[in-house]
Amino acid sequence: MYLEVIIITCLYFIRSYYPNLENINITRQDVIGNKEVQISCTEVLTLLCSHLIDIVRESSKSLACYLADLFSRLKLYKVLLHCVLSSVCYPKYNNGHLSNQVLKFNEGFGGSKDRLPRHSESLQKQLIRLLLFLIILEYEVNNHKGEKSDTADIPPETNDLKYINGKAIPQQPLFLTIISRALEIQPQSRHTHSHWTALVACSLPYQGAALTKVVTTALKQICHNIEELSHCYSATASTGFPADYGITQIEALTVLCHFCLLDTSTVFNQTQLTSGGASSSQIFSNLTHLFLSSPPQTEQSKERID
């Protein structure tokens, strides 16, 4: 009962925004105060999920079943995925819709064209941490229930922004859209890329059947970002990249490739390990599956390719 109340309350506050109404005098301090409340609620949920992970690992199946039912009723995964998506809706995706106007109004204090406002960036970083713990918690709950998430292919015409019931977080098209948008080379997002690549890297053991799509989505964007970084060495290039940007992106690239090559429990490995180690055919198969398996394209990626 108390657990349900805490989760519901935090979810309500995380989704709280000031409306953009002319007859209401909303100050900068009001918006910043609301951001601080959102950050605090995100921290509470992160701490809660981290403790639940340890408890589930040491408990019986009944607790896992209870948590799975509770999270389903509260729509925890769905709500937080949409909250994370709203945090990466940069001006490129803004249009005349009311929801985008509200988001823009609540992000419009203290920012610049090269970086998000300090409180908005802090909130996004906290949401990234929470998303990682949610992925791990969902994985542990499903394992203790003795049930595997639905691994059936998602129809290609499925909306990339729609949450699909019965699918684990890494298998959601919405999750792939979030990763793709978050890693795009927008000036305001460059300072958070290291946190997003850390999320992908830390969640690799819990990706399950979605590992191929998640890794290829991240790798394509990371490689594109490194290519864009090379243009900074020209005389007319923008210098809006963090000082360690290249290092963090190459480190992420290394971790993703190494995990996919060495992990023996994923679909990348098509041959059995021999007593002498991995064979050359296995390594070639791993590389083939890693770089030739293409993830579903979002609308933004289609536009970029065209």
UniProtKB/TrEMBL annotation:
Matches recorded under InterPro entries: DOP1, TPR_DOP1
Source species, domain of life: Eukaryota
GO biological process, one term: Golgi to endosome transport
Pfam families: TPR_DOP1
Domain DOP1-like TPR residues, every copy: 1-263
Entry GO CC: cytosol; endosome; trans-Golgi network
Name of the molecule in the record: Putative dopey
Organism phylogeny: Eukaryota, Metazoa, Ecdysozoa, Arthropoda, Hexapoda
